[in-house]
Write a structure and sequence with these properties.
This protein is an all-alpha fold. Helix content is 75%, strand content 2%.
């Protein structure tokens, strides 16, 4: 029997993650039954769970995948850009990413085992944000009267607030100026000169 190529395995894994993202966003963790996961991915239960041990492992892999994508955006453009992407119609998976993020938040509150497993993975975004802010401080674009740790916590709280706002279905078309204000609040100001940062 011929061996399956790594490219094929990677493509299959991506197919499962992309389909599952839609399923979890639409139905939540509990509502994403195996049957619905099969429908969303176009694959059988056996194919799905060949790649992932169980539904929780699949969900964690999906949430981690989203966290890696976010960390990549943060490293290049900052955490405020992640927030802008959430508001953007043209963003790759804004609604599905939001659904995953909300489900992570819900499970963190209610599931102690999930919280322990997620803690191992959640540090990526915080680390990427701190590193980005430290680089911005080094080149003089970030205010230096507040620690990078406090600025990171501030930006993460704003992100969580934005996620909650969107989750409640509140209007989002007037939030760009709010994100401008958030960005301004972490910049270093030299008289009237302003430099981009977070």
């Amino acid at each position: 029997m011929p061996r399956v190529s790594q490219d094929h395995l990677d493509a299959r894994r991506r197919q499962i993650l992309d389909g599952s993202r839609v399923c979890f966003a639409r139905y939540g963790y509990e509502g994403a039954t195996v049957r619905r996961l099969e429908d969303a991915t176009g694959l059988s239960r056996g194919a799905i769970f060949h790649h992932f041990r169980d539904k929780e492992s699949l969900f964690l892999a999906l949430a981690e995948d989203d966290a890696v994508r976010m960390a990549d955006v943060v490293a290049e453009q900052g955490l405020v850009q992640v927030m802008r992407d959430l508001l953007s119609e043209g963003s790759e998976h804004p609604a599905d990413w939001l659904g995953t993020r909300l489900e992570v938040s819900r499970r963190l509150r209610t599931d102690h085992e999930f919280r322990a497993r997620w803690a191992e993975r959640s540090e990526q975004l915080t680390t990427a944000t701190r590193q980005r802010l430290a680089r911005q401080r080094e080149v003089g674009k970030l205010r230096d009267d507040i620690s990078v740790e406090v600025l990171t916590a501030f930006l993460e709280l704003v992100l969580e607030g934005l996620v909650s706002h969107l989750a409640m279905g509140l209007p989002a078309d007037d939030l760009e100026p709010v994100l401008d204000l958030v960005e301004e609040s972490v910049r270093r100001h030299r008289g009237n000169e302003m430099n981009g940062t977070s």
